[in-house]
Amino acid sequence: MQGDGGVLFLSGVGEVTVAVAHDGLSFQPLHLDVSSSCWSSITMQPKLQSKLQFSDVYAVEHLDVGPVCGPWNTRTVVQGKRNTEMNRFVVHAITRSRKQPSPWVPCEYMFGHKDLETCKTWAEHISGCINKEQDRPKNLMVFVHPLCGKGRGCKNWEMVAPLFERAKVKTKVIFTERAGHAYATLASLSDKELKKFDGVIAVGGDGLFNEILNGLLSTRHKNSYPPTPEGCRYFGSNYKCQEYTNNGVSNNMATGDDVNVLSGNLNTPDDHEPLLSTAQSTGLDISSSNLSDEPCNGDQVPFVSFPNNWFRLGIIPSGSTDAIVLSTTGERDPVTSALLIILGRRISLDIAQVVRWKSSPTAEVLPTVRYAASFAGYGFYGEVIRESENYRWMGPARYDFSGTMVFLKHRSYEARVAFLEVGNTRSLTTSADNTINGVQPLQYHQSRPHKTICRTNCFICKETSTSEHNSGDEILASSRTSCENQKWVWSEGRFLSVGAAVISCRNERAPDGLVADAHLSDGFLHLLLIRDCPLPFYLWHLTQFTKKGSDPLSFKFVEHHKTPAFTFMSSHDESVWNLDGELFQACEVSVQACRGLVSLFASGPEV
Ligand SMILES: Nc1ncnc2c1ncn2[C@@H]1O[C@H](COP(=O)(O)OP(=O)(O)OP(=O)(O)O)[C@@H](O)[C@H]1O
Which of 206, 270, 293, 350 is flagged as catalytic? Predict the structure, then answer.
């Protein structure tokens, strides 16, 4: 290797001059008679490029002496031989698959040289360059759900584990033994232990991810409860306009009432929920909360709090529902997800904080906090999950079966919903203002605004995302929602379902998701109120989700509101909530979007 370049033998291409730039390598065939078709003529592996970005290289391996293929171009034979024995090293990178444009696949660039030292120098130099790439994880905690998606969890982990090994990413692997295992592990893990990891990976479905999310946040997200409307019995319990932040741990935040409400919760165990109540597990102590980004405990170990700039979550999709992966990568592919994790890709993700005030109409007020990454829904959505529990033996098909059963029952539920209408994000349907007094007109279809789909490098999410350059304080500032022009709007009546999508919630059945233009990190929930309507209309609405490019939310009986927060009240306990596919018994809840509360190893949906 001389300076920033040299001549090497590239398997399948022949001799090439290799130039090293600050961001990658480029190769030029030395013998011009080796046509450029060589780059794409290698059929044994995905298409090689003549330029390689370091950001796409995940490992460099030095190999023993062995054969390196001559050019694949049959008309040209450089050095007279097809295979030449020489010293070798391999650069492992990612590329698009040959057959499909979308998933990422690993590819290898095998280089050879007759001189061992030259080979070693090259391999070390390229390794040094990729080690300078910021933001790559070195140590990860991995939870594998062995039973998820018909036992796919273990198989998928076996498939991708060699990629982590090759990239020298250490993994502490925990095979879950029961529901709640991942939650309990993370909720009880000391911050000192957690700080040893750059992130946590779920090899499972949305359910395991939800457990991990709750385990991490239950003790580490110190936040004011969602705002509630005037007239609601919780009004003022924790909310003042200027306090509506993702992290309300501030000295001026806690009113006397706040402390009462929060501390009143501390000693009371949660009822029969698999996850512990936040208050029980956190010992939330507003008065002693420290304002700095990373305060220290007695042993000088910095506390871990969310949002933060370093910790990330990842998912290797293996469940029967993988809506979070599909909405954040555009793919349901374990290898794509593993490569995005290893390469340290990062996006911010909004999280819905759901506070249950009452589990049933007769229960005492006992605020209990849960988090959802994709969806929180009541009525139809809750009943499908509840019903499906009776048919576990069917595997993933139980969702179709119970969906049909619940649909045919066609039940509706009496409820009152109040949502915050903010500034220019007025309701996407026309009826909101009309329903303030409980009037329930059918909506008139209105031409809906142009949809801006969230994609990789989405400018809407980037505007104030928790980028790696932001300090913790900047994150908090960016996540603060303007209180100007906010007003509460009421909607009440009988609903087939009440749902809030945090992200698009794409899945195989709904290629555009529940809300095609939901963003990963814009600080908004998409509240979907499906009013009681004749069964055929409801069927028509549901079938629209299965068609790409359709508009299932344009029906008169559908209200769609983009909002940072809402409160739901029912005087019955006829139905349950579904949080990321997990059941949550509640008849009164408040929900708020926490902008960019967590970061994910992903680069956004490539759709
Ligand atoms: N070892 C285990 N045994 C039983 N349940 C588990 C285990 N590990 C995790 N769980 C729970 O199983 C539920 C579903 O997990 P996940 O979403 O990963 O898989 P899935 O195949 O998509 O499941 P489902 O079809 O129930 O949605 C979660 O609530 C999770 O907490």
Answer: 206
